[in-house]
Amino acid sequence: MSKYVxxxxxxxxxxRLDGVEDALLVNVVGLDxxxxxxxxxxxxxxxxxxxxxxxNLARRACEGTPLAAAFEGAAGTLALLWGGEDVISLAKEVVxxxxxxxxxxxxxxGGVMDGExxxxxxVKDVSKWPNRQGQLSILLGQILSPGANxxxxxxxxxxxxxxxxxxxxxxxxxxxxxxPAASDEVPVSPADxxxxxxx
Length: 199
What we know:
199 residues, alpha+beta, Alpha-Beta Plaits, five-stranded antiparallel sheet, elongated
């Protein structure tokens, strides 16, 4: 490949990877054409992109960018994988594909996250982290938890007081049965009363 062609390819790679900060390197050497098409479709359905590149061209294209760290110690022809929700989702997908065995010899080879180089083992470790949605759920729970605790503490005494008042009201009705009202009493006339006369 002439220097002119290499420069063109490098510029095209740099253009395609512009704005990409987190990515993983995977091995796809040995996959046949049908498996490669199936793999690309599976990744595309999850908004992930896969590009097979030569390391020396990729290094030149990514020089001075956050992706440069991904190629530290990389050798041979590898595929660059990026996109998806975040790098954790990428790692989860890569590990899941490898475990499935459908696309052997597909495997993680490394990558870059937040400008830091990732080894193949680190990719597997990252795949065990909660993804963006999981992290948001945890964060939301931590934000709402103090408010829920405060609310329950504020409402508990009021609920206990209301319960005691209700019990007192029910008990007062049982202990003091209603006496007939004054209007219900039958008046007694003097004629109805008898007085014992003494002889």
